[in-house]
UniProtKB/TrEMBL annotation:
Peptidase M20 dimerisation domain segment(s): 216-320
Keyword Signal among record annotations: yes
Pfam families xrefs: M20_dimer, Peptidase_M20
Signal peptide (residue range): 1-23
Entry protein name: N-acyl-aliphatic-L-amino acid amidohydrolase
Active site: 103, 169
GO molecular function: aminoacylase activity; metal ion binding
């Protein structure tokens, strides 16, 4: 017979069971410790401790028998790009690159339940709390620990494997991956395929990203005759600007509607959001209230799937969102690459026409994992620079059953999920580096 009192007792006992049910092995504990050690190095902007990260990573990689190289793409040499190398038995084949960025976004400690740089490992839940736990300081430790396991098992890669740790991803990558892909050093690596960061999955299916959206911005400026606050007239600057804000909002609703209806992923639509508005005539007490200003402007964040018809969007901005006949002008900032070196959209194919995709997919399955439908990432990563060079790249972070906490307060990764990720990378590295095709 069901008895509420028994149920409550059982619930209390369950909650008291330490996590995980079986204790961690010595190797697993040391892997968690290395993850914590790396998280404790303060690599958050605006003052990332790149030297501290290098001092941790270089001896760590050397202890695993990997080659180490440090590159600099700034004159002051304050932003190291670290390359770790496990040579393959056939160095003539294109190599595999496993990428991650060293930097992270800042944290606001007052909103955290554990200090963001303490890397507290909660014994009750197994969670390791730290800025960077998901984005993306788990990755290099998982890559290196997977390599440790493969070496211990006597595995010898056919293709050379490189691990890159790059600066400045969170601030656009200009002194990091953007310059790296243009360098002789990158060309010399002869990269055939890259894995980069992805995002956590709420379900038990791993997420994988085959493209990043393009990040553009545009500003619309309106001019018009000034007038008394009491007068109704056509052609005022604010009125004209409000009309186009409405037009943009209509487009935005249609795009957002596809996401709400589940027809498109958030990365598969064009997002356009107003981020600032500026108008009015300042007065000592605020703004002049009885005057309609002669100038007004609005700024938009605009993000496009790389498969989008770029020319059509530019035409739309010119003709519908900032038409000159409404006394509007615009400035469009198209940041980052739009097409690869061969003029193709920055997309890595996820069907059998891309043999790397099949190797990736089979490796996930052989690890006992399930893959969700491949997605376009709604934000950006350094993978876009590598795709620009015509090199296929997938965004992947092995985090299932995990809330998406990148850039958020109380970012954490559970120990079990972290350790499982090491196994997944063992399967991936084994398969990718053995691929002869
Ligand atoms: C544009 O500005 C001109 C000059 O101020 C004005 O005559 C005209 O009515 C304005 N047009 C619109 C559509 O606001
Ligand atoms: C793979 O996908 C691309 C892009 O969607 C498509 O153009 C191509 O025909 C597909 N190839 C195969 C073999 O399915
Ligand atoms: Zn990241």
């Amino acid at each position: 017979m069901f008895h509420l009192r028994h149920f409550l007792l059982a619930a209390v006992l369950l909650a008291a069971v330490p996590h995980p049910a079986h204790p961690l092995t010595e190797l697993e504990s040391s892997q968690i410790r290395r993850f914590q050690d790396y998280l404790r190095i303060r690599t958050a902007h605006p003052t990332p401790d790149y030297a501290g990260a290098a001092a941790f990573l270089l001896p760590y990689a050397a202890s695993l028998g990997l080659g180490t190289t440090t590159l600099h793409f700034t004159a002051c040499k304050s932003k190291p790009l670290i390359l770790l190398t496990w040579p393959g038995t056939d160095p003539s084949l294109p190599s595999i690159l496993l990428n991650s960025h060293i930097d992270s976004v800042p944290a606001e400690p007052e909103h955290w339940i554990h200090p963001p740089y303490a890397a507290h490992h909660d014994p009750a839940t197994g969670r390791v709390y730290a800025r960077g736990a998901q984005d993306d300081k788990c990755l290099p430790i998982q890559y290196l620990e997977a390599i440790r396991g493969l070496r211990a098992a006597g595995f010898a890669p056919t293709r050379t494997i490189h691990v890159s740790l790059v600066p400045d991803e969170e601030i656009g990558g200009e002194d990091g991956h953007e310059k790296f892909v243009q360098s002789d050093e990158f060309r010399a690596l002869n990269v055939g395929f890259m894995l980069d960061e992805g995002q956590a999955s709420l379900t038990d299916e791993y997420r994988v990203f085959y493209a990043d959206r393009l990040v553009w911005k545009f500003i619309v400026k309106a001019t018009g005759a000034p007038g008394h606050g009491s007068k109704m007239f056509d052609g005022a600057a604010v009125g004209n600007l409000m009309d186009i804000i409405e037009t943009v909002a209509g487009f935005r609703e249609a795009q957002f509607g596809k996401v709400k209806a589940g027809k498109s992923g958030p990365g598969e639509v064009v997002s356009v959001n107003p981020v600032y508005m500026n108008a009015g005539t300042p007065s000592p007490t605020g703004f002049v209230m009885n005057m309609q200003p002669s100038e007004a402007e609005v700024g938009f964040d605009l993000r496009l799937p790389p498969t989008e018809d770029i020319e059509q969007i530019i035409r739309r901005i010119k003709e519908e969102w900032a038409p000159a006949h409404k006394n509007l002008t615009y400035e469009l900032m198209m940041k980052g690459p739009v097409r690869d070196v061969a003029g193709r959209p920055l997309v890595t194919l996820t069907n059998e026409s891309n043999p790397w995709w099949s190797v990736f997919e089979h490796a996930i399955i052989s690890s006992g994992g399930k893959l969700a439908k491949p997605e376009i990432l709604s934000s950006t990563t350094d993978a876009r620079f590598v795709r620009q060079m015509g090199v296929p790249a997938l965004g992947f972070s092995p985090m299932i059953n995990t809330p998406i906490l990148l850039h958020d307060h109380n970012e954490f990764l559970e120990d079990k999920v972290f350790l499982r990720g090491i196994e997944v990378y063992q399967h991936l590295i084994r398969a990718l580096s053995s691929f002869k095709g």
